């Protein structure tokens, strides 16, 4: 059963998710090639119903614009470079700590991930079929998962580093930081 199926208690999915640390070159090619077409459905992906006028909600419009620009940047500008994606997402996650005063909670990333993956699956299924659809959905689910995990790591690290030093945060997580993470994380403790 895939991740989304387990969350939704739905066993009718034929897209099984196996999350690894990095996207494969084939997955990157699929994502980069499909993004311009998927992007045409941007309003739907970001939760705007047909006929709805989201321009009346300026905060919502800023959020949609920011998320859309972020995905464009990661997919098209940076071409899903592993180190760049990790750094950009970790930094963005760390910046979310400032949103706590507005009610942000780390669990919102799980909600975001499920919603994004559901709508991406629905959207791709509207114009794709067969193994191409399954591979593309799989690649997008992995991308969204990786983005969320890097953001969550940046957020949690910055939150912990506000009250302890870098090594204490890693002891709590029981993991060893990569050189890339150490350079990104050390910039948080200086801010």
UniProtKB/TrEMBL annotation:
The keyword Heme applies. It comes from the Eukaryota. InterPro entries: Globin, Globin-like_sf, Globin/Proto, Oxidative_stress_globin-like. GO terms for molecular function: heme binding; oxygen binding; oxygen carrier activity. This is Globin family profile domain-containing protein. Belongs to the globin family. Residues 43-133 form the Globin domain.
């Amino acid at each position: 059963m895939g991740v989304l199926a387990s969350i939704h208690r739905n066993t009718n999915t034929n897209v099984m998710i196996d999350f690894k640390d990095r996207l494969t070159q084939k997955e990157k090619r699929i994502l980069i090639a499909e993004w311009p077409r998927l992007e045409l459905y941007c309003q739907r992906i970001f939760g705007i119903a047909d006929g709805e006028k989201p321009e009346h909600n300026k905060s919502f419009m800023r959020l949609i614009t920011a998320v859309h620009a972020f995905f464009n940047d990661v997919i098209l500008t940076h071409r899903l470079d592993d180190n760049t994606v990790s750094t950009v997402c970790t930094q963005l996650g760390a910046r979310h700590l400032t949103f706590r005063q507005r009610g942000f909670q780390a669990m919102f990333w799980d909600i975001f991930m499920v919603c994004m993956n559901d709508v991406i699956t629905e959207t791709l299924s509207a114009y794709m079929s067969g193994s191409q659809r399954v591979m593309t959905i799989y690649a997008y689910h992995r991308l969204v998962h990786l983005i969320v995990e890097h953001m969550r790591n940046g957020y949690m690290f910055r939150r912990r580093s506000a009250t302890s030093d870098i090594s204490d945060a890693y002891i709590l997580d029981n993991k060893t930081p990569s050189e890339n993470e150490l350079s990104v994380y050390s910039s948080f403790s200086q801010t």
